[in-house]
Design goal:
alpha+beta; PvuII Endonuclease, Chain A; Arc Repressor Mutant, subunit A; 2 domains; three-stranded antiparallel β-sheet; globular
Length: 258
């Protein structure tokens, strides 16, 4: 069983368990994590208070944001300032999120990467502003809504205390990398479409199956009056990204990776 801390001395001087967890989880990532985007075997901590980024790859400069929790992450992951996250997404600087789960005895139970290309404006929500009596009165945080992110973007690194092979993890990560080259508006559409069609019962489906999401997409994008053409366009985007294979005759299937 893998322990989170390298030395019990890391806990010295930190009164609350939240502070202890932050300290030792950052230390563990600095010692054990690797870049998913390139072949770098390490991640470098960023300076304190760096906006929306805790680690960066020293080779490709890709950013990572660490979240840790005692127990399992569920439908929402609490993050930092809502405005800062929006700016990061709109500037195409979204970090990959690293979700580290541990037990009460500091044993690691899970470690999952959330691919940066699928963290879009539609997958984050603002939290309630802090009360007027709070030290940071009016401050607005955000949460990542996990059901809004397609399963493709939730990449296990450690699952059920088992370490996944790095080549496999990087392979899963790179399948989505082409989406990160899209503008944030186009990436938002592609991420939503991917999440919707992943809810279809089979890996193979027809265009008519996807058209069933038309009313749902009209609610998400009320300013768009041409949803069906947009659906066809996004299927082409996902096909060009290598995520879908076009079979002809209005039929598609999810690509089969080697």
């Amino acid at each position: 069983m893998m322990q989170l801390y390298g030395s019990i001395e890391l806990l010295t001087g930190y009164a609350s368990r939240t502070q202890q967890a932050r300290r030792i989880s950052e230390d563990w990532v600095a010692r054990h994590a690797y870049c998913l985007r390139c072949e770098s075997g390490e991640l470098t901590p960023t300076p304190a208070n760096t906006e929306t980024c805790d680690f960066v790859c020293p080779q490709c400069d890709h950013g990572y944001e660490l979240k840790s929790k005692c127990g399992a992450f569920t439908t929402r992951v609490v993050d930092g300032a809502y405005g800062a996250m929006l700016r990061t997404i709109r500037a195409n600087r979204t970090p990959t999120f690293l979700l580290l789960e541990y037990s009460r005895d500091w044993s690691i139970t899970g470690f999952t990467a959330i691919h940066h290309s699928l963290i879009t404006e539609s997958s984050i929500v603002a939290r309630k502003p802090l009360a007027a009596t709070a030290r940071r009165a009016g401050w607005v945080g955000c949460s990542i809504v996990m059901p809004e992110i397609a399963v493709d973007g939730k990449i296990p690194i450690i699952i059920n205390e088992r370490i996944e092979p790095p080549a496999q993890v990087r392979g899963s990560f790179r399948k989505l990398e082409s989406l990160s080259q899209l503008s944030h508006e186009r990436r938002n559409w592609a991420a939503i479409m991917l999440n919707l069609i992943r809810k279809l019962p089979e890996d193979s489906f027809k265009l008519s199956d996807v058209y069933k999401f038309e009313d749902q997409l009209k609610l998400i994008f009320p300013g768009n009056n041409n949803v069906k053409p947009k659906i066809r366009q996004q299927l082409q985007v996902l096909r060009d990204a290598g995520i879908l294979t076009f079979l002809g005759g209005g039929k598609y299937r999810f690509a089969r990776y080697k």
